[in-house]
Amino acid sequence: MAQSEQKTVTVKLVKSPTGRIAKHQACVRGLGLRRMNHTVTVAATPENLGMINRVSYMLSVEEAK
Q1: What residue numbers bound the domain in which 33 lies?
Q2: CA-to-CA separations, 55 to 5, 29, 38, 41, 50, in angstroms, rounded
Q3: Mean pLDDT, range 12-39, rounded to an integer
Q4: Which of 27, 33, 45, 60 could in theory staple to 12 by disulfide, Cβ–Cβ 3.0 to 4.6 A?
């Protein structure tokens, strides 16, 4: 699959990772989210989708077009 054909997901951090489980904080950092209301677009790979699933209670997720 070419880079331009790869599906993406837009992720927004809506709850603070402060005081959360260390692995959950690591997932938030791994997705590239740095602060509250920060939005990033990541590739929809199994690794990224797994991190999104683990910390879904802190995120707002939309499929990019």
Answers
A1: 3-63
A2: 26, 11, 15, 16, 9
A3: 97
A4: 60
